[in-house]
Amino acid sequence: MSLIFSVFKKEMIDALRDRKTLIAVLLSSVIIGPLVLVMISFMVSDIESRAEKREVYAIGMEHAPSLRNYIERQTFEIKTAPADFEAQLRKSKFSNPVLVVPADFEAKIAKGEAPHLEIITDSANRAAATGTGNLTRMVSGFNQERASILLATRGVSQGSLKSIDVDEKDLANAQSRAAMLTGMIPFFLITAVLYGALNAALDSTAGERERGSLEPLLANPASRSALVIGKWGAVAMVGVIIAVFSALSFFPAQALLKSETLRALFQYEAREAGMFLIVLIPFAAALAAALMAVAIRCKTFKEAQASSTFVILGVSLLPLVTLVNPDGEQPWHLFLPGLGQNLVMSRVLKGEPLDALALGVPALVCAAITVLCLLYVVRTLNTAAVK
Amino acid sequence: MISVKSLAKQFTQGRGKKARTVQAVADVSFDAPDGSIIGLLGPNGAGKTTTLRMIAGLIEPDAGAIVVDGIDARAERAQSLARLGILSDARGLYPRLTARENIAYYGALHGMSAAQIAPQVSQIAQMLEINDLLDRRTEGFSQGEKMKTALARALVHDPKNIVLDEPTNGLDVLATRALREALRALRAQGKCIVISTHIMQEVERLCDDVYVVSHGRTVAHGTVDALLAQTGDRDFEDAFVKLAFSPSTQALPSGVQS
Q1: What ipTM is given for this predicted complex?
Q2: Quick one: which H or E segment has residue A82?
Q3: pTM across the whole model
Q4: CB within 8 Å: A6 and B59
Q5: CB-based contacts of B152, cutoff 8 Å, min separation 6
Q6: CA–CA separation, B213 vs B240, rounded Å?
Q7: What pLDDT is attached to residue A174?
Q8: Which residue of A has its CA nearest to B11?
Q9: What phi and psi, each to the nearest 5 degrees, are found at residue B197?
Q10: Which of A57, A387, B88, B234 sits at 20 to 30 Å (Cα–Cα) from A39?
Q11: Do the Cβ atoms of A59 and A80 come closer than 8 Å?
Q12: Buried b (16+ CB within 10 A) or exposed e, B143-176
């Protein structure tokens, strides 16, 4: 036991003194996540402020006094769109949809014909697209008002106009709506663990071989399992430390969130961070063991980096399964390392209750991976360490 | 005391149809008593490193016996390694650790407590004159400094037997002299020392007994003077070439040094 601790201590010192790598990992996995979150919040608050502005951009509104009257009654301000708005919309320089009113608007209304209105937007222009819904609703509101007045003057009840009553009900609660925006936090935490453990794992296996220190190390009476467990403990610990930093970094980010609604909806407190760590610790353990198993046969650090690409890609791409799969969440998702953790952490963020299955299955899978990979590393050191 | 009897090891290189076997060590035997320095002298690829790796428990021999202080090294690996101090060809220091940490780590791996390690480190540092180096990281050490640190690391558990693979590789004159002094001092303490080398002068100046290894076999044995007498040469280099590359050893399959 003291032997394992000696190896663990040495590997920790070794990994923590590798300042350049640590700083790079900290920058990439601890700073970028919150930064992206804050940037998104700026975007959201921009959209929100536009919604609050209550403005309608139009061309040719002078031809439609009745429509102007309706829009102004909805307490919206009417502004004239710039002449080259189409080009600006395409270049994302102008971020509002534009209502184009024909010259014969009032004349057609008076004749009882339907005038032709155009709402011009660019679906590639995110900000303009979000305003389109409002503008469309505004126009159909006007349409309905005109129709009901016409019907009323002919003595028809307004109710007959509405044969169907539609009411939209969004089942997503406030937190799950926020989770759509904060869904990337699990991804950042998973990559933090991955890149935290990666370097230490390769350095303590392939790096040891490349440096020529593996041979003298194995010529010690210390058992190979003690060496492997000590090394693995240190690698997993580095992964966990980076994960802790990464989890903590979202607290200050929260204070910087620009959007009021996002801040109100974003529930990330000590409880959530703690739950994340409960999910991430077994994951770090499994990842450390898997990376060591991949690297143990490699002769150089470079070779090990190339081989570990499979692990890195697998872990970072598996969470995408939920995006691509039209069936949504499936029970087997919990069994896939990376994906399972992502799902459980998303549930925590959404404020959904977690059952024993959701917590237990990914942890058990991680434990199994850890044991298998460590056995493989010990076996490799016993049989094919030096050739 | 280290005693090696008829050691043999074959390697398979490549896979499938391209596979070929190489007899790295065919028949190596030597006896290294306490209080003496034994030299394994041989050309590159003679099988010296493979022999030493088998003694260090890194490679399982196909045949033969290795006995360290009466312990069968193949059956009781840990027991035998506890009695051995090994300086391998690759010094293999940890660049981000200081010399002291490098040495102490191996002490811990030998099951020593911190209280046992500290006095041992200062004693060895005294002998090898590396006190100034102890608290520097080994990154950027010269070859001589690296060798001394690696030797100190191999000696931290005060082993009875010391095995050194090409210890003077890459060392300048002063560092080589310092190493020789250190080895003589260790011999005076009654240690059993085995060095492998391909450098004649080392053997002439240091070794009490020489085993000439060629093509995986020990082909000659004796003191430097006895070997000179055997071949009738005055120059040890001439004697070595005759012994190592005589027609009787040429016929054997060539070995490899991996």
Answers
A1: 0.90
A2: none
A3: 0.81
A4: no
A5: B99, B103, B121, B124, B125, B128, B130
A6: 10
A7: 53
A8: A387
A9: -160, 160
A10: A57
A11: yes
A12: ebbbbbbbbbbbbbbebbbbbbbbbbeebeeebb
